Amino acid sequence: MRLTTSLVFAGDDEALGKPGIVRSIYDPTAGTGGFLSCGMEYLHELNPAARLATFGQELNPESYAICKADMLIKGQEISNIKLGNTLSDDQLPYKTFDYCLSNPPFGVDWKKVEKQVRDEASKLGFNGRFGPGLPVYLTAPCCF
Question: Which candidate in 42, 54, 87, 106 could, as Cys together with 36 as Cys, close a disulfide (CB 3.0–4.6 Å)?
Answer without folding.
Answer: 54
